[in-house]
Write a structure and sequence with these properties.
By secondary structure, this protein is mainly β. The protein has no helices and 5 strands. Strands 1, 2, 3, 4 and 5 form a 5-stranded antiparallel beta sheet that branches. The relative contact order is 0.20.
């Protein structure tokens, strides 16, 4: 289990109480209606030294104030 208290995780209300297979990071910027974030998961599940990457962006809808994710999750070498 990781420490989900820092690095912006509390801002996007994310945590896990289960074991994780990836290294997670988030970059958050802005405030209120200008806030945005990029969340990443990177790991080497098959242990061959090549990592896979999953990345998603999110922004605050300036009209509704609701968090919206990007159109798709960016993936690189997802089967690694």
């Amino acid at each position: 289990l990781g420490n989900w208290d820092g690095h912006g995780w509390y801002v996007i209300k994310f945590a896990s109480d289960s074991p994780v297979l990836y290294s997670y990071s988030v970059d958050a910027s802005g405030t209120d209606l200008t806030a945005s974030f990029t969340a990443r998961a990177e790991g080497d599940v098959d242990g061959d030294g090549t990592t896979s990457l999953f990345e998603r962006i999110g922004v605050i809808n300036s009209t509704s104030g609701i968090v919206e994710g990007g159109a798709a999750v960016f993936t690189l070498d997802e089967l690694e």
